[in-house]
Amino acid sequence: MTNKEKYQAFLKVEQEIPVFSQSWFLDAVCGEENWDVALVEKGNKVVASMPYYRKKKLVFNLITMPQHGQTMGVYIAYPKGQKYETKLSYERKMMDALINQLPKVDYFNQTMHYSVTNWLPFYWRGYKQTTNYTYVIEDLSDIEQVFKNFSNGKRKDIQKAETIVEIKRDISAEDFYANHKMTLEKQGAQISYTFEHFKGIYDGAYQHNSGGTFYAIDTEKNIHAAFLIIWDKQSAYNLITTIDPSFRSSGAAALLFKEVIRFSSTITNTFDFEGSMIESVEKSYRQFGAKQKAYFDITKVDSKILKLLLD
Fold first, then answer.
1. For residue 176, which of 139, 209, 213 has the smallest C-alpha distance?
2. Which one of 86, 196, 278, 293 has the largest count of C-beta atoms within 10 Å of its C-beta?
């Protein structure tokens, strides 16, 4: 069996592996031939994994993050009942074994899921890290309490939007992409991904019952905002957001988030805003009562030429 085939079997056993490391998502954002996975096995059983995306830029070989691949990195299936010290020792052993299997490249960059809280084994191997932040509603089991934690400003926006727009599901891939392209052009920007790339994510999400689209539309058929979310057993994630600046004051985005969070509470445990380091976006996500979560962006540059170019 290839590592990918073993990984497919591992994914069926381990239900906590984030959607960003699921094979269907990796196929969509990387291309089926452009990703592989390092595995640690014990007794013919996979106990740790690390998918990675390879690409070439100019003369340099890279392991990096694919577009819309929010996180990747290490997943470890821990033995039950480990003491804390034993767990840290086990983590180092697993991470070392995974690092040893990575192909030699000029540049490495991966963003780890926030569930990975220990990057010391990478540090000891010469890697560096930057801390990023996302915002997460940690418990969706009491949805009314979740809504009570929204700020007063968000609740007012929602009340306003309820008189203006209706929330609907399952906009077509073509219409979603066209809307995002149009809303960006209104702001003097260009869309950064192709329709083919988006269609791969969209089709994969629907085919694997792991994602969907939601949008806010008024009586004149104007789309004020649209979201593509994806989900796994543990969390739903806000992946792509399009908001029409012409209708920014309608409050539609706040109402859309409320309904997406409500839906997420019926299928999973948490909601991840896939938070931004942009100050205004961070403030908005925080006002939904979400908690800040730190996650690691890990890099290593092995090419002397590339080091000079990056310095």
1. 213
2. 293
